[in-house]
Amino acid sequence: MSSILHILNGDSTAYSFKDTGLDGDILVWREVLSQGPLIEDISSSEFWEKRSEWISKGFNESPENYRKKVIEPLGKLSNIYDEITLWFEFDLHCQINMLGVMEVMLKHTDLSIPKVYLVCPGECAGVPDFRGMGQLNGKQLADLYDDRFRLNDWDFILASQAWKLYVSGNTIALEKWINETTFWGSLHLLKPALQAHLKRVRTNEAGLNHIEQILLDIYNSGIKRKHAIYEAFWKTEKIYGMGDLEIDIYLRLLADKNLIAMPA
Prior knowledge:
Layout (H helix, E strand, L loop, with lengths): L3 E6 L1 H7 L7 E5 L15 H14 L4 H9 L11 E5 L4 H17 L6 E5 L18 H9 L2 E2 L2 H16 L2 H10 L9 H12 L8 H11 L5 H12 L6 H13 L8
Parallel strand pairs: 1-2, 1-3, 3-4
Antiparallel strand pairs: 4-5
Helix pairs in contact: 2-3, 4-6, 4-8, 6-7, 7-8, 9-10, 9-11
């Protein structure tokens, strides 16, 4: 067995990763923890049952495929590795997935053995509209690997604190923690992602959260087709890291409120 493990956030990065020339096993994290129900104990069967039910209902996925594609690969985290590298981008989608992975590692991985590193780009040279590592080729990913950060105990403590506060849904406590935390270690892009989260869970006078309001404004500006709405949203709100299916969740909420006709 290889002594190196790479944990990739989604299949889009995995496609190009094979061209990096980097050694090691690969674990593709295929969850979207920034959406849907969560409980604090990520190692519990209840956690994964709730996630499976929600993913199966909202993303047209079967529980069997969810287990095969999401749960079973996590068994690698119980193996012994000399080195583990986490590959997660700057956006809320990736940062919450990163917190989830680190929480799983705290419970299932002997962290006294491997050196744990983080590749977490907020931008990439030569890519003016950088949205994620799925845009990059093997050489560009290998260059990011050369600049990775070594994680320490403080980073895992910080991640665990953030995970607990995020899952609790207590926005006042989360905002207080964000404001009072002065040292973010190697988790240098976690703060703006969590601030974006606060914006999306708070509502304005019209009863809409930030994402709903942005999508409504786009729709009311005359952009009525789904793909065009996606592009307009990504242009200003890439901090959320939302794909088509996730944006559709919010479009359906607006349609249910009779504020838009569900775009084609």
